[in-house]
Amino acid sequence: MLDAVRTRLTLWYVGVLALVLVAFCAGVYLLLKRSLESRLDTNLRTSVEAIARMIPHELTEGESAEQAATSAIEELYFPRQSVAIFGAGGKVLAEKTAAGETPARLPETVPSSPGEISFFTLPETGGHEDDGRRGAFERMTAGNSTYVIVASQSLEAVSEELEAVQKIFFMAVPVALLLAGLGGWLLARQSLAPVVSMSEQARRISGENISGRLPVANPRDELGRLAATFNEMLARLEASFDQQRQFMADASHEMRTPLHVVRTAAEVTLEQPHRDEHEYREALAMIGDQARRLTRIVEDMFTLARADAGRRALEKSDFYLDELLAETVRAASVLAARKGVAVEVAESAEVIYRGDEDLLRQMLLNLLDNAIRHTPPGGAVRIHLRRENGKYLIKVADTGAGIPVEAQPHIFERFYRADKARSRAENGRGSGSGLGLSIARWIAEAHEGRLELAHSDSTGSTFVAALPALNNL
Fold first, then answer.
1. Is the separation of the CB atoms in 455 and 462 below 8 Å?
2. Is 139 found in the same domain as 154?
3. Distance between CA 363 and CA 302 in Å, rounded?
4. Which of 455-464 are b and which e, b meaning 16 or more Cβ less than 10 Å from the residue's Cβ?
5. Can you state the angle between helices 420-427 and 222-270, rounded to 10 degrees?
6. How many domains are contained in the chain?
7. SS3 391
8. Average pLDDT value for residue range 313-323
9. Which pLDDT belongs to residue 421?
């Protein structure tokens, strides 16, 4: 039960509220007690001062010390108080006791200096409750006599008021905590209801049902933003899953054709016990072409898989980018010569670059291979290297038929081909796997650059690889 968030929130809420209420009640109780005691002391002081003013007045009228004390007490009203005037030796000169009160008693110590009012408290006696008393006394000299004026009052009224306040607190605080706890639990339950709903929905989402999304009750609060963030993550995961499924389907489709060719060639060749050497050579040549194509597909898939997993770290070194370009063109010229396509390279200055030489060589070969394959015999492929706006731009242009407009946004997708019919026909002769442009773009981005289709129409296509020159030495 305590594992539930709403239970812990409720307990924290009730606990903090209990501390606040206890502190508040204690503060109110102490302030009230201080106020009641201060008011009681003020009343006692007033009574003592009034008697002290009356005694000299009565003495001026010719009364004796005892008569003056009696007259001073009788002429004044002391509600709920007991007063007494003591003479020399502690003799009671006059006293007045309120109904239900005990007589005023002389304190154990009397101040030596006249005119000083002191207060004292008499504790409760063992056999009676609430019979403690608060008193005030003053020593004064009038005429030739010394008087000690004492006024006292029971603390029962103060105790009763404080006990009443205590009872109110003892009843109100538990009720307040109970109501607060119930309200806090309902509030926590209502506030965490979207979390419960999101949890139930998330439990139903799986790899087979990743299209589900978490409900967003209020997109402006924290839980709504959390749900929206999870939905964005699920959308990315769904896109990744779809891409993986599509990748596997396309890879299976690409590999099925060469495998079918290999199997068919082997079965047809083995149908008869004896065949001419020429037939065996043709079958083995066909099997070899398809094996090379399968090898390239597997290598490209492995490269992309390592790139997606982030396990293909760049092995950077310093090299001449212009020399790498010339070397790559020489290698691609062999394929271009077989097809009757010319490869032209524009002259460029020496460029020292820092990057992964093997990956950049693969990027250039993929771009040249793509350009040569889509250029008809008699056409030309032009490659140019120059520096512009802090970047090295490598342009690869061909004179092919161009890429259809509707296909241009998809050419960097894996296994995508603009002209599938022609591609399948070319595949039988060992053409590309449909992964070359995807790998080339990844290599450019891994070097903090980019690869884009700059132009494509009926006159040909131009791809531009932009590599940052900041790594240049």
1. yes
2. yes
3. 15
4. ebeeebbbbb
5. 40
6. 3
7. strand
8. 88
9. 40
pLDDT tens per residue across span 90-111: 788 888 888 777 888 877 766 6
What distance lies between CA 83 and its chain's CA centroid? 72
| Alpha-carbon Rg for the chain in angstroms | 52
For the domain that residue 28 is a member of, what is the CATH number? 3.30.450
For residue 276, what is the DSSP state? -
Torsion of CA 302, 304, 306, 312, to 10 degrees: 110
Q: Encoding tokens for residue 209?
A: 């049902």
Q: Please report which helix (H) or strand (E) contains residue 385, including its range.
A: strand 380-388
Judge whether 70 and 97 are in contact, CB under 8 Å: no
Q: Cα separation of 27 and 46, whole Å?
A: 28
Beta bridge partners, 219, equal none
Q: Is the domain of 226 the same as that of 270?
A: yes
Give all strands (DSSP E) within 53-172, no chain letters: 82-86, 92-96, 117-122, 133-142, 145-154
Helix (H, G, I), strand (E, B) or coil at 310: coil
CA distance 113 to 406: 113
Length of the chain: 473
Q: Nearest-CA neighbor of 449 among 432, 433, 472, 416?
A: 472
pLDDT of residue 273: 78
- 260 shares a domain with 154: no
Percentage above 70 pLDDT, the chain: 89
d(CA 83, CA 75): 13
- pTM listed for this prediction: 0.51
Of 130, 160, 190, at which residue does a domain stop? Answer: 160
Residues near 32 by beta carbon (within 8 Å), at least 6 away in sequence? 161, 162, 165
